[in-house]
Specification:
The protein is mainly alpha-helical and 447 residues long. It contains 19 helices and no strands.
Length: 447
């Protein structure tokens, strides 16, 4: 017969959102997650930051009279990265749940660091595709491992803040990247940019591997203890078939599928946007991107803080998380005005607000996985959601490449409205976040 949680366990799951103690080492771990995420995004952003320099590579076939040929190559290479990223998520999340956070994270960052450096050795469009595929497979491990780590180290109401902090590494990479890449390319050439960023991941492993992760981490938080009880005990390893029956999984995937593509757009296409619309070079792009991605770092932390702030003042997980998600979704709407503006600083302000809203939204999206699933399933759930987001990103990247020249208003319209639409669908699927919304995630022991 199906396993049913006891009433007192379910009540505890809904009411134990008060502050829970934590290991002081959790902020050291958060710092390492921040560094890893910074390196992760720096590695993936190098290609788009080098877009003007790629015009000089013969096999990319840049032609002032026929830019659509280069655009087709460029968008195809980007899309292949996202396809690989999507496929890898299905494997890597489960792998990390099986082997643990420490080993899983180390393996992922080793793969993506070697793949990042390998870009410097290619001699064709196909070669770039192979390098991007390898990078996608490695980089897929970052968020499943990082979210699992926050589940293991942080109490419920601190998880979105911790996620916002480490997730801001993506923004730091984005606003430091133009300066770093421009300097390296100017001094040593475009190939050196890939080698340098690839080596950064190997240096991170020097800090990660010696740390006694499993000996120092905190015990399960109250909420996670109750989620573990609901699925069959501390050692329960939820089976994939049971995860696929959970409403919460589909709600999480909806949020990722509809909003991750917008962040890919901001990462991959903004340097190109400023280059084409305002004639900005790689160096001139640096200041606008610094402002935009600097704003997104602030949004990432504030968005994560907002839900925890509400919970500490008596709001339920459902009310706290969804309030923060709605606030961020509303702040995304003004970006629709960008195609109608002819002032670069108006564009920069609107895009800074939009990217800040995305990152605040994302910090809370990731935390919904820890609100609905136990730590033994978090990496798998984040991996499946990452696949949904990467598929959406690949489709939207290819779509953008097709309509970019003729219909930019359509692209920015989708970017503006995706968050409100996805939150509405998520609310219909998961009306009461924080409750036990899934069936038993392990096989019942009694027939």
């Amino acid at each position: 017969m199906a396993f049913t949680p006891q009433e007192d366990e379910l009540a505890a799951l809904k009411t134990t959102y008060q502050k829970e103690g934590g290991s002081p080492w959790r902020w050291y771990i958060c710092g390492l997650l921040f560094l890893a995420t910074t390196i992760n995004y720096l590695d993936r952003n190098v290609f788009s930051l080098l877009e003007p320099a790629l015009h000089n590579i013969p096999f990319m076939q840049w032609d002032d009279a026929h830019p659509e040929i280069f655009n087709a190559h460029y968008s195809t290479i980007l899309a292949w990265f996202q396809v690989a990223y999507a496929v890898a998520f299905l494997v890597v999340g489960r792998f990390i749940d099986r082997v643990g956070t420490k080993i899983g994270y180390a393996v992922s960052i080793l793969i993506w660091s070697i793949a990042a450096a390998s870009h410097s050795f290619v001699g064709s469009v196909f070669g770039f595709i192979i390098a991007r595929v390898a990078l996608g497979f490695g980089e897929a491990g970052n968020f499943p491992a990082a979210i699992k780590a926050t589940t293991e180290w942080f109490p419920t109401e601190e998880r979105a803040l911790a996620t916002g902090i480490f997730n801001s590494g993506a923004n730091v990479a984005s606003f430091l990247g133009p300066y770093i890449v421009a300097w390296i390319v100017g001094a040593y050439g475009w190939k050196s940019a890939f080698i340098t960023t690839g080596l950064a991941g190997l240096l991170w492993l020097v800090l990660w591997i010696p740390f006694p992760y499993n000996r120092r981490r905190r015990d399960l938080t109250m909420t996670q203890e109750n989620l573990q009880v609901a699925v069959g005990g501390d050692e329960a390893k939820p089976r994939l078939g049971f995860l696929l029956k959970a409403r919460g999984l589909y709600g999480f995937c909806t949020l990722k599928f509809m909003t991750d593509p917008i962040w890919w757009f901001y990462l991959f296409w903004l340097p190109k946007y400023f280059n084409e619309r305002f004639g900005f070079s790689m160096k001139q792009n640096a200041l606008p991107l610094l402002i935009i991605y600097g704003g997104s770092s602030i949004g990432s932390i504030l968005g994560g803080y907002l839900s925890g702030y509400r919970m500490k003042r008596g709001a339920t997980v459902n009310a706290g998380r969804k309030f923060a998600l709605l606030a961020c979704a509303v702040c995304s709407l003004p970006v629709i005005y960008v195609p109608f503006s002819h002032n670069i600083w108006v564009d920069v302000a609107l895009l800074a607000l939009a990217t800040a809203a995305h990152q605040g939204f994302s910090a809370n999206v990731f935390s919904t996985a820890t609100d609905m699933f136990p730590g033994t399933a978090v990496s798998t759930v984040v991996g499946i959601g990452g696949t949904a987001g990467a598929i959406g990103g690949a489709l939207f990247t290819k779509f953008t490449g097709i309509v970019w020249v003729s219909h930019p208003i359509l692209i920015f319209g989708i970017a503006a409205t995706a968050y409100v639409a996805s939150l509405l669908i998520f609310h219909l699927i998961v009306p009461r976040l924080g409750e036990n919304l899934h069936p038993p995630l392990v096989e019942p022991t009694n027939p």
